[in-house]
Amino acid sequence: MTTANLFAGLPAAPQSDETTDVLAQAPHGRVERIVSTGQASPPGFWYDQPFDEWVVLLSGSAGLHLHGEPAPRRLGPGDHLTIPARLRHRVEWTSPDEATVWLAVHLRPADQPSTASESPS
Question: Domains (ranges, CATH) in the chain?
Answer without folding.
Answer: 19-107 (2.60.120.10)
